[in-house]
């Protein structure tokens, strides 16, 4: 089923799930709402009305988010990236007093890295293989800081400043 919220098209899919979920998908901010089979259309529309401001805000945010140019990364570049991640993890984990349970490298459209707080796994964008080494270190430290503080709040930036005082310069180089 498809519905509209202003000029935003919303796709609604019924699934065998327990809760309603909203996904804002890159790169254009397409909205997908997954709904349990037992919930009526009326309940779905009440839910959407309640979440309207959140949907509008996050749709706009995703639309304006820069997506990465996907460059062809060679096997050698990928191996180099893997080695750098291991090298920096071995350097920073003992210093920061954290331990990540695993790393995954994959092409990501809108992020350089992400961290799953519960599983303590870190995902790194394959496109980092085409960036300067100091940018890889920045992304890894950033994701490891999330093991200390999940949110991008004052405490998180305190840790970034503590462990990598020049992180802002590295971030600028990364996003050039």
Automatic annotation (TrEMBL):
Entries under CDD domains matching the protein: M48_yhfN_like
InterPro entries: UTP_pyrophosphatase-like, YgjP-like_metallopeptidase
EC number(s) reported in the record: 3.4.-.-
Every YgjP-like metallopeptidase domain range: 77-175
GO molecular function: metallopeptidase activity
Listed transmembrane segments: none
Top-level enzyme category: hydrolase
Any Pfam family the entry gives: YgjP-like
Record keywords, A-Z: Hydrolase, Metalloprotease, Protease
Superkingdom classification of source: Bacteria
Keyword Nucleotide-binding listed: no
Protein name: SprT family zinc-dependent metalloprotease
Native organism: Anaerostipes amylophilus
């Amino acid at each position: 089923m498809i519905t509209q919220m202003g000029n935003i098209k919303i796709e609604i899919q019924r699934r065998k799930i327990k809760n309603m979920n909203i996904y804002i998908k890159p790169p254009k901010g397409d909205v997908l709402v997954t709904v349990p089979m037992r919930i009526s259309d009326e309940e779905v529309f009440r839910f959407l009305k309640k979440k309207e401001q959140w949907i509008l805000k996050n749709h706009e945010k995703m639309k304006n988010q820069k997506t990465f140019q996907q460059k062809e990364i060679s096997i050698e570049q990928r191996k180099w990236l893997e080695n750098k991640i291991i090298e920096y993890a071995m350097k920073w984990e003992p210093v920061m007093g954290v331990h990540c349970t695993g790393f995954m490298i994959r092409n990501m459209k809108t992020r350089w890295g992400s961290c799953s707080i519960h599983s303590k796994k870190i995902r790194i964008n394959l496109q980092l293989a085409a960036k300067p080494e100091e940018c890889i270190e920045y992304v890894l430290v950033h994701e490891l800081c999330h093991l200390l503080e999940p949110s991008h709040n004052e405490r998180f930036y305190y840790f970034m400043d503590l462990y990598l005082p020049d992180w802002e310069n590295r971030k600028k180089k990364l996003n050039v």
